[in-house]
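Table S7 (text form). Paired inputs.
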Amino acid sequence: MSQDLITIARPYAEAVFARARETGKLDEWAETLEFLAAVVSDARVADIIANPAVDHERKTDLLLDIGEGKLSEEARNLVRLLVENDRLAALPEISSLYQQMKSEHDGAIDVEVVSAYALDSGLEKELAESLKQKLGREVNITSVEDPELIGGVKVRAGDMVIDGSVAGALSQLANELGI
């Protein structure tokens, strides 16, 4: 996520989150933003959105047609606002930031676990339980494979990083030896 898009997306995500809390529709908005982010991430739609020759009305009509029956009136208004301000490309970041806010509100934290090999569900659950006890919050784990780690795991939870990988240990050893 580029820093510029995060800066652009944050006020929209905060506004949607505040409205979702007011109306008690946190889950509905999460699904709506996820849907809209997927739509604008589609290559064909992204090309239309990025095309300056396509006017705002046609972009709005396209998105509202795609979302027919899936978007509340408030979500339709959000689409109109984003089109008017040329911010449709920020929808994936808006969705991501909203999800982070929702997780914090729910008392959960999103954790990325990078491992050299795929983690089975049992190990993921065990790791989630350990992290829950350490962090004192519910944990939502996302697993990513990175064979360059050689073995072990690297855990990212917010700004905390726990590097228990073989590659991390070798790098630390090299630093201590001055290599």
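Next pair, protein 2 of 2.
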Amino acid sequence: MKNILFILVILFTTAGLAQDSTKVKVDTPKIVSKLMYGKTISIEDLEFKFVAIESDSRCPKGVQCIWAGEAVVLLDVFKNGEKIEQKRVVFSPKISLINKIGNVFSSEAFNVSSLNIAPYPKYDNKINAEDYYIQLQIRH
């Protein structure tokens, strides 16, 4: 009986100490924004506008393809209302997310990265340009 009591005391003590959250490092939250085709998103003193779909050769759902394909979009970057550059963003399964960090915009204050383009094509459905959107990740 003493052994069982001793084991229970050890278990509860260990469980209580394991809950110490004062030493836990919390990462800065990542913000993911949805940018619709033809629309603009503002981040601090910059604006990003989804202006064109250059190509979308992704393999549609319901079809077997040899090549996975890719989607290419153009984003205009404005600062204080003036266009400063145009970014060509490629969405491809070959491109690793690690290589994409800050691929839309990067500064000391924040990074803007492209995560995904949607909707995904289906073999029997044409996607209208207005239906496209991209997901942008903003890291401060």
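The domain at 27-139 is CATH 2.60.98 (Tick-borne Encephalitis virus Glycoprotein; domain 1).
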